[in-house]
Amino acid sequence: MKGKLIIVSAPSGSGKSTIVQWLMQEHPELQLYFSISCTSRAPRGTERDGVEYFFLTPEQFRAKIENDEFLEYEEVYDNRFYGTLKQQVERQRDAGQNVVFDVDVKGGVNIKKYYGSEAMSLFIQPPSVDELRRRLEGRGTDSAEAIEQRLAKAAYELTFAPQFDHVVINDDLETAKQETLTLIETFLNA
Questions:
Q1: Which residue, among 96, 110, 102, has the nearest Cα to 180 in the 3D structure?
Q2: Fewest CB atoms less than 10 Å from the CB: which of 105, 107, 120, 133?
C-alpha cells in the first residue's frame, strides 16, 4: 500500500519545522518520513547535505529544472531555489512510507494540486506579524535585512492559507502541536 502525503507549509518563523520535528521524534507510531528538499542556499548552523536538505549550486538546481525532476520548486529569492524531487517522493511512497513535506507556501499548494486527495495540506499560521518578527529575531540566524525580506514575504504568504485543507494558528506551541497531531492521525486512519 502506498504511503500518504502530509504537506506542512507556513511563512518562515511560524513554527512549522519545530512542529514537524516534534511529530517525527515523538510519534513514531505515525510512521512519518521526512521529504528532504533541495535548496541552493548555503547550510545554516549544523545542517548537513542529505539530512535537512540536498544542497545544490544554482546551476545544478537549474539543470534539474530543465530535466523536469521536481515535483515542485520555487525561486524564493534571487538565485535561492527550493524544490522537491519527484523520484524521491515516489520511492518513499512505494515503500509504504507516510511522507511529510516541510515546504514553502507555494510549494505546498503545488504538491496538493499534484496529489489531490492523496495528500493533506496544513498551513501553520503565526498569531501576528509582530510575533513573527520577534521569533525571527530570536533565532539569531538572519541579518536585519533578511528578516525584513522574510516579513514582507510572510505578509504575501498569509494570503495562501485558504488554499490549504487546514489552518493551525501557532499562538501556543504545545496547542499547535496537539492540533496538528490530531489532524494527521485522522487523515492517516481515514
A1: 102
A2: 133
